[in-house]
Amino acid sequence: MIKTNKLLRYIFLILGIALLIGLIFSVLHVSNQINTYNKTSGVVVSLKEETSNNHSSSQKNSLVYFPVVKYKDNQDKEHLLIESTGSNPPAFYVGEYVEVLYDPLSPDKAEINTFLTLWFGTIILAVFTVVSLIIGIVLFILLKTKDLKKYKQDGIAVIATVFEIKRMDNLKVNGKNPYRIYAKWEDKINFKTYNFVSDNLFIDPSDKIKNNQVTVYYLKNNPKKYAMDLSHITQ
Questions:
Q1: Are strands 192-197 and 97-103 parallel, antiparallel or unpaired?
Q2: Tens-place pLDDT, residues 193-209
Q3: Residues in domain DUF3592 (predicted)?
Q4: 234, containing H or E segment
Q5: CA 108 to CA 74: how far, in whole Å?
């Protein structure tokens, strides 16, 4: 489960980054349309009907209406645009005049010049991007683990006394509340007491703590940088 949780954070972060790249290209594409496409007037000549697939058994399939727009380019040649974004009720009515953006190099490529028709796909992509990145970042924070091997190699080992094992009821990952171990160590040479907190554990460690003690490795001359050895718990 721990390995699965760690894998999930990378999946969501990679997905979020991939979506972010796609979002950047989408923004650039729409911005390019706005800045380089020609503007002209068009009229909605019909509404193309399509049946939406509703997966809910309690609701019937419904019709979605896509506006069909007739417009002319700067050569006075007529073109038909079937808008890719449909709705119910229809966003436009037959006979309505609309502004059209079309590619001067390929006049058949066109969009109705409204915020929603131009940016709808980008907005949906932005929502998925933000959700994926937030989930990935939150998982990284909640499942952050320290490099125990590095601390064992470069650090100093001390035996700390466990004074609390706490289930984090305000945090949940995959429906589970993590546990944290709180321990303290008294530096009798410098007459200081240091508190240590474990990484998140997704099993109750209470039965695996012997004599209320855990081994902690801290970097030389800096006890605030440490890693708690919980390998006997997580294995």
A1: unpaired
A2: 999 999 888 888 988 88
A3: 40-115
A4: helix 231-234
A5: 12
